[in-house]
Amino acid sequence: MKKAVENIYLVLIFLFLFLPIAVLILFSFNTSSLNIVFEGFTVHWYKDLLQNRTLLEALFNTLIVAGVSTIVSTIIGTISAYGLHKYSFPGKNVVNELLYIPVVIPEIVLGISLLSVYTLLKLELGMVTLILSHICFCIPFVIISVRSVLEGVDPHIEEVANDLGASKFQIFTKIVIPMLMPGILSGAQLALTLSLDDVVISYFTAGPGSNTLPLQVYSMIKTGITPDVNALITIMLGVVFVLLMVSTVVQLRRIKKEAIS
Amino acid sequence: MKNKKLWKYFFIIPVIIYVILLIALPLIYILIISFFQSDYYGGMISTFTLQNYIDIFDQVYINVFLKSIFVAGVTTLICILISYPFVLAISHKKPATQKILMTLVMVPFLTNSLIRMYGWLVLLRKSGVINQVLLGVGVIQEPLSLMYNMFGILIGMVYTLLPFMVLPLYSSVSTVDPQLLEAANDLGASKIKTFFKIILPQTLPGLFNGSLMVFTPALGYFFIVDILGGGKIMILGNLIKNQFLTARNWPFGAAISIVLVLITSLVIFAYRKLGGKMEDLGGA
């Protein structure tokens, strides 16, 4: 009885979570362009999508911004997490406190303050400012993620490597990075998710030539959205879903292995 | 020896530059222009004034503040009420099932939040899917107003912010010792008593963490209010956005942002006083 109630509740919540996405996927195959009732099946909108330059450009920009900001913030975040863990320097506490600002502050404040500084520095809004802003809010999450792994690492390992004559560079690339890999990967995944999900900061720091997919959809909501947008969303969701399933299967195997041993 | 110093610089200089240029400088600059004067043509005059802060005490803006806190507060409350039974139900499953279900929770959040709001628009509007279905079945005669009102905004907010409550609460719940729950059960404690005496106290860190991560973003999500609220209702996010992009009164927009930062600081102060740790935030 209790199990049944629990399962029904879980189903209802998952329904709530998936409904708005399911409806977009469904309408991407709809013959009517009005997104109101399902009239018949078609892949017409997927062909339209290939012709829609604005939409493809927005997709391209989104992927570039997400890719570049994930890579850069993962590199800087990993180096910084290690530096903050290992070295002390004047003002370290202040740096540590300031790092949490992008995590807790409402995004809009970060968005308008970055916009103001770009204007002050006479930087023209575009891909560069957009990527810089995404790096800005991704770095702290990578640092937090890497740091949580660093805390469990035995400091003697590095000492031993040093005693055995390994150079600093060898220690960092051959020992530290492999040990931190789980934290680095989950940090990178977090950065990628945050970058793909962002609306608010992009809204203030993108320029005319750097429309991303969410910004494009935002402006289209006011004028009317064509179903090829639904098609694009469906494709992106499919890719993300496959990637996620692969990573879950890998993790499930690890859980099973741990259960056996 | 010199080599060692160089290595140290290599590891600490990037983060120092980052913190100064992309965090401290922007925020200090916003603080400075919040004391500037607007020239009404979108520019700023750099003479010191407190006028922007005085202007906030206009009834119109006070109402926006109150409405924002209402929206964020109710959103947080609904997220708590939905999440507790949800994570408890998940925690009763086998480890592998738990992993799959928690991954499924994350799947919708890998599409952009604005695109999901568009999905809700398709569902909720007058000619939307939900109204079509209800009309078709004959439950209602007239389409319901499910959006362009507070209801629509709350749906959007709860939907967008729910994982920020579910994730910390789930990791909190998984630390509760199952033997403790069994003991409570054996000793005849009711489900409600077990929840309030054991589960709630032990999951408070997750609850506070989640509440912080839901409440503060909810004050600023202007696009949710824009799309599902229909422009009649305004929260702080909309007000700031309008001052920066439409009214082009940057000093006033900056002053409101500073007040928003103060509210956030207050919430974080409370979180820390309650024993919350900063490093637990954002790690989910």
Characterise this structure.
The complex is a heterodimer of chains A (261) and B (284). Chain A has 261 residues and is mainly α. Chain A has two domains: 1-52 and 229-261, no CATH class; 53-225, MetI-like fold (Orthogonal Bundle), CATH 1.10.3720. Chain A has twelve helices and no strands. Chain A has helices at 2-27, 44-51, 53-86, 92-98, 101-104, 107-120, 127-150, 156-163, 168-197, 200-205, 213-223, 227-260. In chain A, α2 packs across α12, α3 (53-86) packs parallel to α7 (127-150) and α3 crosses α11. The two termini of chain A are 35 Å apart. The mean pLDDT of chain A is 89. Chain B has 284 residues and is mainly alpha-helical. Chain B has one domain (59-276): MetI-like (MetI-like fold). Helix content of chain B is 73%, strand content 1%. Chain B has helices spanning 2-33, 51-55, 59-91, 95-106, 113-124, 129-137, 150-173, 178-186, 191-218, 222-229, 236-246, 250-273, and strands at residues 37-38, 44-45. A two-stranded antiparallel sheet of chain B has the order 1-2. In chain B, α9 (191-218) packs antiparallel against α12 and α10 crosses α11 (236-246). The radius of gyration of chain B is 23 Å and the shape is globular. Chain B starts with a helix and ends in an 11-residue tail after the last helix. The model of chain B has no long low-confidence stretch (mean pLDDT 90). The interface between A and B is large, with 87 and 87 residues.
